[in-house]
Design brief:
By secondary structure, this protein is α+β, with helices and mostly antiparallel strands. It has 2 domains: about 5-10 and about 95-169, PH-domain like; about 15-90. It contains 5 helices and 7 strands. The strands form 2 sheets. A 4-stranded antiparallel sheet has the order 1-2-3-4, with helices on one face. A 3-stranded antiparallel sheet has the order 5-6-7, with helices on both faces. The longest helix has about 35 residues, at about 55-90. The model has no long low-confidence stretch (mean pLDDT about 85).
């Protein structure tokens, strides 16, 4: 890949989309806040047990604690898992092979049905994680490029450097 002209061909899988959705929901802030709430509820329940209120009061405080844990660590992942599947299967364009072409003016997304062009000034933010490069055009819309479609680590670095350089301008 050259720094000024980079092309990446991808085809998202349901697994790519699900994992990306899970990473958006389960941020460090959510996990920290949940653990803090659970810890405070547990301490409150424990204090009530050791005070004159007894075991009944402890159980009355412990049941909501289990409910919070179940909601955050069981119900929410299940919701995200099934909602991601529904969204992915409903949107045929998400399942199409597409090519991202990056150059000095912006980038082009080409599918079997046409293409779309975006200039660099329309980018909102670029986020890189272990498995993906996400190019945001707004707070809620992103173009997902799984790194597994990029041939080498140096090509990943070149693309990320180009994107971050263009974001600064």
């Amino acid at each position: 890949m050259e720094n000024d002209n980079i092309s990446v061909k991808i085809k998202l899988s349901l697994d790519d989309y699900r994992k990306w959705n899970m990473s958006l929901v389960f941020t460090k802030k959510l996990i920290f806040a949940t653990c803090l709430v659970v810890l405070l509820m547990f301490v409150s329940a424990l204090v009530s047990y050791h005070s004159h209120y007894g075991l009944d009061f402890f159980m009355d405080n412990f049941i909501p604690l289990l409910g919070v844990l179940a909601l955050v660590f069981i119900a929410l992942p299940l919701f995200v898992f099934f909602n991601a599947k529904k969204s992915f299967l409903k949107d045929a364009s998400m399942q199409e092979e597409r090519t991202y072409g990056f150059d000095g003016e912006g980038f082009t997304i080409t599918t079997g049905h046409g293409n779309s062009r975006m200039t660099w000034d329309r980018l909102y933010r670029v986020v890189e994680d272990k498995k993906n490069i996400c190019i945001y055009s707004s707070r809620i819309k992103a173009f997902l490029i799984p790194k597994r479609f990029i041939t080498s680590e140096s090509d990943i670095k070149a693309l990320v450097a180009l994107l971050k350089d263009k974001m600064k301008k």
